[in-house]
Amino acid sequence: MPTLQKLERFGYHLIMGISGTTLSDEDKHALSELKPIGVIFFAKNFLDGLPYEAWLETFGQLHSQIQEYAERDSMFFTLDHEGGRVVRTPLPITKFPHALLLRSHAREVAKATATELKSLGINLSWAPVADIYSNPQNPIIGSRAFGDTPETAAFGVREYYLGLTEAGIVGCAKHFPGHGDTSKDSHIELPILNLTPEDLQNRELIPFKTLIEENIPLIMTAHILFPKIDPDLPATLSRPILKTILREELGFEGVVVSDDLDMKAVSDMFTQTGTVARAFYAGCDLFIVSRNIHSSSIERTYKIAEDLVDSLSNGTLAESVVEAAKERVEKLLSVTPQYSVQALNKDTLVQHAQLAIACCFENS
User: Fold this and answer.
1) CA torsion, points 35, 93, 295, 59, in degrees to nearest 10?
2) What integer pLDDT is reported at residue 179 of this predicted model?
3) Which of 29, 148, 185, 187 is the catalytic position?
4) How far is residue 49's CA from residue 71's CA, in Å, rounded to a whole number?
5) Residue 79, H or E segment
């Protein structure tokens, strides 16, 4: 069993989920022992059904306690907040329509969204979705995408990302190298896409290229197997996809973050010794372990942390690889604003609600 001091090594690469609206003893131990560099919030972390001021005060206390127990002055406070069906927050935080409906409003919506996220102390949004709505049978992406062609998707993600950036929120492109053509949900099983590198170049990669040209600092991996590119490993663990395509061919120099390791597409893999080392070698810098799927236990988070320490100890993972990843993450954190939780005025929220309605009409 590695010492707690050694387990902190994983904290520099960990975005961790919190169990509820207050910190449990398990949360407190994990925050103080692993010292994650960030947290991810879900609906379970907000008190729904209460007046705005009441739930916001409780969330503000949770936000402060996380920093206190993690003993970090700066952290990534993150949220999946795309609009449509991917909104975790209670009213009166605006529920904007899904990305497919935003069209010419994308940048304006992103700015309004950023204003609201900052008021929650959030500094990193897991958006925009850079996938293409290319498969009508896709159970997980669909209208979360900004378009059904590479061009419409690329235009939408660029506008949305620039809106977030201009208003002070860090954005993240997901899910590399493209989740739009799948017919399976990676939360439940591992999707397989028989696309060639040329197929990706001609379609899936175009929105990601657009965002890389705009210097997006974060790209999230897809838990998808591409047998014609890497027959053995999903994108999250694949050197040909993350190193060769993303880093070398597309020239991405920012932080590569895994999609949630609790998702069934990869969760069993990450209980196996050496998997986290494979992910680092593939090109991952940061890992999300949400504890939000299938009632995932904190034990899995510790198991992955122990696997990292053991891999460094036995030499199957080079210190230089982990150190390079840590430097990329810390470089991003050093330019990520830190916000306190505070209420927005009613007029601002009314304006945002009107914008959400406007998005739902063709000629607005």
Assistant:
1) 40
2) 74
3) 187
4) 31
5) strand 76-79
Q: Nearest 5 degrees, angle CA 51-CA 57-CA 62? A: 130
Residue 63 annotated to the active site: no
CB-CB contact of 193 with 224 (8 Å): yes
Buried/exposed 279-318: b ≥16 CB within 10 Å, e otherwise:
bbbbbbbbbbbbbbbeebebebbbbbbbbbbbbbeeeebe
Structure tokens at 222: 């897809």
**Is 187 known to be catalytic?**
yes
Burial (Cβ within 10 Å: 0-12, 13-18, ≥19) of residue 61: middle
Q: Which residues, other chains included, contact 360 with Cβ-Cβ below 8 Å and sequence gap of 6+?
A: 97, 101
- Residue that wins the pLDDT comparison between 268 and 289: 289
Distance CA 168, CA 349 (A): 18
Distance separating alpha carbons of residues 151 and 131, to the nearest angstrom: 11
Strands 173-176 and 124-125: unpaired
pTM assigned to the model: 0.95
Mind listing the pLDDT tens digit for each residue in 114-169?
A: 999 999 999 999 999 999 987 777 667 878 999 999 999 999 999 999 999 999 99
Number of H helices and E strands in the chain, helices first, is: 13, 8
One-letter identity of residue 354: Q
State the catalytic residue, choosing from 27, 259, 307, 310.
259
∠222-227-231 over CA atoms, to 5°?
A: 100
